[in-house]
Amino acid sequence: MAEYKAPVKEMNFVLNHVANMPGLAQLPGFEDAQEDMVSAILDEAAKLSGEVLSPLNTVGDQTGVRLDGAEVPTPEGFKEAYQAFAEGGWGSLQFDPAYGGQGLPYSLSIPVMEMWQAANMSWGLCPLLSQGAVEAIDASASDELKETYLPKLISGEWTGTMNLTEPAAGSDLSVVRSKAEPAGDHYLVSGQKIFITWGEHDMAENILHLVLARLPDAEPGVRGISLFLVPKFLVNADGSLGERNDCAAVSLEHKLGIHASPTCVMSFGDNGGAVGYLVGEPGKGLACMFKMMNNARLAVGLQGVAISERAYQHALEYAGDRTQGRAVGHAEAGPIIRHPDVRRMLLTMKALTEAGRAITYDACASLDRAHKQSDKEQAARAALLTPIVKGWCTEFAQEVTSLGVQIHGGMGFIEETGAAQFYRDARILPIYEGTNGIQALDLVGRKTQFDAGEALTALIAEMQAVAEQALASDDHVQDGQALADALVALEGARDQLLNSTDTPEFAATVAYNFLMLAGTVCGAWQLLRQALQAAEMLQQGATDQPFLTAKQATASFYIGQVLPRYKGYAAMIEDGYASVLDVSDEQLEAAFI
Amino acid sequence: MAEYKAPVKEMNFVLNHVANMPGLAQLPGFEDAQEDMVSAILDEAAKLSGEVLSPLNTVGDQTGVRLDGAEVPTPEGFKEAYQAFAEGGWGSLQFDPAYGGQGLPYSLSIPVMEMWQAANMSWGLCPLLSQGAVEAIDASASDELKETYLPKLISGEWTGTMNLTEPAAGSDLSVVRSKAEPAGDHYLVSGQKIFITWGEHDMAENILHLVLARLPDAEPGVRGISLFLVPKFLVNADGSLGERNDCAAVSLEHKLGIHASPTCVMSFGDNGGAVGYLVGEPGKGLACMFKMMNNARLAVGLQGVAISERAYQHALEYAGDRTQGRAVGHAEAGPIIRHPDVRRMLLTMKALTEAGRAITYDACASLDRAHKQSDKEQAARAALLTPIVKGWCTEFAQEVTSLGVQIHGGMGFIEETGAAQFYRDARILPIYEGTNGIQALDLVGRKTQFDAGEALTALIAEMQAVAEQALASDDHVQDGQALADALVALEGARDQLLNSTDTPEFAATVAYNFLMLAGTVCGAWQLLRQALQAAEMLQQGATDQPFLTAKQATASFYIGQVLPRYKGYAAMIEDGYASVLDVSDEQLEAAFI
Known about the structure:
- 2 copies of one chain form a homodimer.
- In chain A, 56% of the residues lie in helices and 12% in strands.
- By secondary structure, chain A is of the alpha+beta class.
- Chain A folds into 3 domains: 8-282, Butyryl-CoA Dehydrogenase, subunit A, domain 2, CATH 2.40.110; 292-434, Butyryl-CoA Dehydrogenase, subunit A, domain 3; 436-582.
- In chain A, strands 1, 2, 3, 4, 5, 8, 9 and 10 form an 8-stranded mixed sheet that branches. In chain A, strands 6-7 form a two-stranded antiparallel ribbon.
- In chain A, helix 11 (376-407) runs antiparallel to helix 12 (419-426).
- Chains A and B meet through helix 1, helix 9, strand 11, helix 10 and helix 11 of A and helix 1, helix 9, strand 11, helix 10 and helix 11 of B.
């Protein structure tokens, strides 16, 4: 099995022409993000991902992790890879130079993060969570906490976790029961948290747990939840590590995928209470956590893109090597890549992956603009795109990794082939960081109905401009018309949402189809704008024919062979909620009870 | 985790009103298939599947199988379950009474087979393959071979396998290399076969391998392939078991799913040659094997239905038990089944499963009519439906088992929950017995273009009649219109296929979308005809309100929330082949090379 090759050319193209990195580099503080520097960063990250992390992916899956007393030894090579990551400063790209960060755009850290996830998703979850912890502490913690914890977290010497879920509190965090009792300058935290990713491991010397818990006098519901920083080892005044805190992994989950990522049941306060520090204001824990959760959602969507890229490269290699049967239009037996149906599958993988990548990078660039320029429109744009990135990219990751298995035929079902691991690993993506059902509700509710469709209408206008540009182009007239037609359907669905605020059942029922409609249409937009850009570059004499013409071909493929799905989603939204909600529980089980 | 409950009421309904079992029972030889008898058989099979096989499903997955010398010990309880199966005569329902069979309709054996597959797919593959071996021997072998081997195979004392695939010969069997040398009254078979399901095990005293191999003077290609019966133990003249034959499992595959089903690499003739007997004529091996493969394809489609039913029951139970969040229209937190998106997922699972079940039983009933009445139209109908059953039902099984994981949220990713096993097990279905790409080519080529669309046109007429009946009904006018519209799209796609026989690239490229279009439309037809039947029964005073009204609601749900996918498939067919085939190999890898 060949190792992962980061698609650096593609990443540079999307950064330049979708995320508009040259424009970002003109903003104060982002001066370092010049094209050469960006390209050099991607090249270096490509090496680490391809040469160090990718070769550990299979062994991580096969070895897995286990609890050894209170310790979790990681698979061979993981710790060394993590040291190389930390020493390379890879965890610090987008963070505040005041705490050791490099002050680069968040959207530049995204292709780099994509590489870790594509090379080794289990391993990549550790820095992904640490990044979230930096964001939460940076956004809400006191200066003292920041000074004590951020530098080591940003340098990668320590890692971070998110402790939200409890057995009875999953999608609904309002029923969190963990407690925090005041004790002088700190709190004593107790309770059990589940599904804690990288909650315990041996790759770094300390782990900072961000924990949702309730103060003694807290009101019930979400407004009674506060956020606490609970380090695995307490930190002395001089910055050195002190006592072991009263928190530990008490068991690990046996999972379908990401076997090398320890998913811990964490117990806090078994011996009197874990020392914790309040982050942000009491009762504002969920808001503080959401500051990291929004970015984490983008990162999970990015994982969908990443594992899709990996599955695509893997399937493409096999399809070029494996000889089986004589394809239409060929005189002799040859590699299966010649078979039209295999080609259709490969192009579906490629087109979805590139569409998702562009949406993701674009959303992250909007976040950069929103932060640097306090631009509310960009903030609303990023907020609107976030559930689409998380929801749509993780849905298509299921399809793409499944196609990766299928292209391998019988070998795809054999674990040693590797395609099955991508398929298993990818299955967590629609679930964690808010299930895709939750993302869909966020999209139709907070992001569409609550702002009277303003952000969505602005996005549709952007997409219409691309459709019009295509209609006026030489090569993509038909593609432009197809996108324009799809946008009419999206507008129709938006209007149905906006006209149904008095029947909330409607939005709740159609939410998933709306998310898929929006994602599918956005994918066409992003690929078409890249195709138009490529056409222009070719006209201006650019020489990278295969890459640039592939951009055009991929857009046309997507618009002909993927975009038409929107017709189904639109019709299902049109169908409304009666056919879903008029069915009783008794009817659901009538066939076998 | 609750055990599988065979949906006996549903199965009886589909047998009576879709497969028209009462009509079949009037045919000579099928007199025993009266309603009482059918129902009693289903009730008994339901017990064995729910009480014996279902409880072994998890342990089978966890224990798996291993090669111990040349032996493959099966997981605890598997052997006893198989003995109960054989003693109950469950393997003999549809076979020739002359060899110990019960002479019942094939279509009656189908719900029974569905139960084994739903309860325990790994285990169920053993009788599934044995059934195929009976069919191949019965159809093509000499009377002497039949007399020696069929009674014990039909009784379940022995089991059977299909040995087709070799490392270089998968979808393309024309390059099979295994050899058979004449040696008096038998042949000496040698070669290596891979992916041999239940190729070795300890559940029965003998195993009959049906092996594709070439005679010394055979021409190259498919016409040089013959079929041989190679028993694990030779059979003495008195029927007792003799010497161990020169064939053995040399390794087992480590697979994504169906862990308890041994997938063997089989070696024949390591010590001079395995004794084998020619089945059918020399050079006709593929034709003989296809006699069993067609039914095996129906059986694999049935596995898709079966595992979907299992995943549905499992998810429905969880959704009723798990409390999380307050659903729209409810004042308090309650079970997640109340959430519209969860309901949508459950109904999607239920509707696809019931649609697939009806198509499958219906196709099998056509086979019964074709055989009993030498009815060519029924034979063509069954032949047309076979790739739809295999392809479409196994595609939706991926979706349904994935929804089963999703409904469980984070718990769905934990192996102990059980949802992940269904998801893993199901992944083989689009691959084996001819990948779904092969099924799609069969549908557009042999089954549509080669008969000038005759069988498909007849099927469309049947579906139009149901749409018209619905348009004239009280409750399903809108559903009838939607089906009629979808049929127009299916006719359009058929015409495109028939008009493109001079550009074979077209059919090869759109084949998958045509298969999905046909399956999706057939699903609506099958559910709507059941809904109309239920409405009529209710009008005539039938009392099983929940079941019959659920039939109506499920049809309306499917037509509103699943059928609209046809619009996408039709548009992708319309798009044709250029966007797929005009992309070069170089362009496919341009982003990362």
